[in-house]
Amino acid sequence: MNNLDQIAEKIREDIISMLVAVGSGHSAGSLGMADVFTAIYFSKTLNLDPKDPWNPNRDRILLSNGHICPVWYATLARAGYFNHDELLTLRQIGSRLQGHPHYKSLPGIENTAGPLGQGLSQAIGHALAAKIDKADWRTISLMSDGELQEGQNWEAIMFAGKNNLYKLTAIIDRNNIQIDGFTENIMPLEPLADKFKAFGWSVIEVDGHNITEIVDALNKSKAIFENPTAIIAHTIPGKGVDFMEHDYKWHGSPPNWMEAVEALKELRSLGGKISYE
Amino acid sequence: MSKATRDGFGEALVELSEKNKNIIVLTADLTESTKVADFAKIYPERFIECGVAEQNMAGIAAGLAAEGKIPFMTSYAVFSPGRNWDQIRVSICYSNLPVKIIGCHTGLSVGPDGATHQALEDIALMRVLPNMTVIVPCDATQAKQATVEISKISGPCYLRLTREATPVITQENSKFQIGHADILEYYGQDVAIVACGPLIYQALTVAKELNDEGIKTTVINNHTIKPLDKVTLLKAARDCGAVVTVEEHQVNGGMGSAIAELLSANYPVPMEFIGMQDSFGESGNPEQLLAKYGMSIGKIKEFVRKVISRKVVKHNGS
């Protein structure tokens, strides 16, 4: 297990601690995206600096499915964007860690998101500004698979394809679940890669828990100059906590204290591979 | 002289953009009728055609604004802010980004296109949003001034425009300040007629004709619906003791409602409301429609008389 994997496990522990402390929030998607967030903020593939969070030349990271913000907050805190102690104020009155992210409420929070399907359009706005200003920075829109059922996304996908926004990358958390069940039962998304291709995008599919693969895909997207790139990250919802994995019931639920203790035990022992006590 | 407010907007946009390189214009397949064709021709690199996709347009505008641009996004008001209200609320308003939402073809006077295309709810939709500024210019000249002024505000703004050529009342050198209502005509203090948009012309006509009949009114051009000019409006209520509001919009949630909220909390006086009375419009020419749906000169006069009859008579304690 390398250093980045260890960081991702720490982020998962933070997520469990935050959610159990406040007693509400979204477990499955937050845990499932810990490896992708680690790849983005810790691999040095992108131009991001926690000490200079609004540097005009930074790469822009936007989150469209705002409900998985616990993983964003935990990653930013671990990366040094703000004090780690503040994580436990999640969803509490007066906190900068709102239940869904609010633009600039914290260093690194690049957009407002909650109602689904809005982040990709916002990201296009950023990418267009870069294009108009002939700037070099890139824009990454993180989004869920379920939210692709919102029509606005397809307006945005059409637009980005037409305008060859090659400095724009969408990373789709393909975890196959949404609130009411499995995506393919609720409203099928497949063939997802073909849909993006048909709209003029390049598509890279990765194992969303293999950080090396994710970093490789981010690097590969930088070498594509024809069109925007969709990285479809296949993930396991609730990844790292056995009783949460693959179960859509954990989409919008936090663990209780007993469950949190069990989850933390599993994460700290790396799935039972080591003894930590 | 007659000219549409949308024409004033289109002209100002071109002039303004020569100096201000941050101005970006977005449209959703309505370049000609939202009057941004000249801009598109002169500044193609700053013109963004979104196709028939108003929700995406609002999100793109938010992203551009977050990068320091000043996006003007144009469409018919029934589509924007009609169709993309959620995007305006979340992506633009909650983030307090300086996106300028230009809603064209508002009011009944869109005419023959019928009820689907007559935006009569847009003021309500926009004034309910925190951080939003709402402006309704009364003529093409004021629309020009308003276009320049809203480009200077640091937050989101809604500018309500109209399709038809309407009388030009103000002049290039008339004062226009966001949040400051203008007293356009003063005959006396029997009733304050507070209007917005091109119906100001009807209000002025009413005031003149009633003056001849001995009813003395004050006509206020309340071009800024949010933030309201509390000082001027409360003074008018105190001085006149009765108010008639005039707007080409649903009475529910419109400018009149905003003034009623202000007055009822601070200085309640009898009010009457000219506007759409909770119904949809229909096809027809603008004049016929305004007559049929109660926004004619005759109806405004009737409401002025009605509100006078409701004024509280002060007795001398005999």
What share of the residues of chain A does DSSP label as strand, in percent? 5-15%
Shape of chain A: globular
| Average of per-residue pLDDT values of chain A | 96
CATH homologous superfamily label of chain A: Thiamin diphosphate (ThDP)-binding fold, Pyr/PP domains
Share in helix of chain B: 25-40%
Spell out the CATH superfamily of the largest domain in chain B.
Thiamin diphosphate (ThDP)-binding fold, Pyr/PP domains
The CATH topology of chain A turns out to be Rossmann fold
Number of strands of chain A: 7
What class would the helix/strand composition of chain A place it in? alpha/beta
Q: Enumerate the strands of the largest sheet of chain A in spatial order, edge to edge or round the barrel.
A: 1-2-3-7-6
Unreliable stretches covering 5 or more consecutive residues of chain A: none
- When the domains of chain B are counted, the total is 2
Report the C-alpha radius of gyration of chain A, rounded: 18 Å
Distance between the termini of chain B: 55 Å
Q: What is the string of SSEs of chain A from the N terminus onward?
A: HHHEHHEHEEEHHEHEH
Explain the overall architecture.
- Chain A is α/β, with parallel strands linked by helices and 277 residues long.
- Chain A is 39% helix and 12% strand.
- In chain A, helix 9 (211-222) links the parallel strand 6 (202-207) and strand 7.
- Chain A is globular.
- The mean pLDDT of chain A is 96.
- Chain B has 2 domains: 2-167, Rossmann fold (3-Layer(aba) Sandwich); 182-309, Rossmann fold (3-Layer(aba) Sandwich).
- In chain B, helix 3 (54-66) packs parallel to helix 4 and helix 8 crosses helix 9 (255-266).
- Chain B is of the alpha/beta class.
- In chain B, strands 3-2-4-5-7-6-12 form a 7-stranded mixed sheet, with helices on both faces. In chain B, strands 9-11-10-13-14 form a 5-stranded mixed sheet, sandwiched between helices. In chain B, strands 1-8 form a two-stranded antiparallel sheet.
- The model of chain B has no long low-confidence stretch (mean pLDDT 97).
- In chain B, strand 10, helix 7 and strand 11 form a beta-alpha-beta unit.
- Chain B contains 11 helices and 14 strands.
- At the A-B interface, helix 5 and helix 6 of A face helix 3 and helix 4 of B.
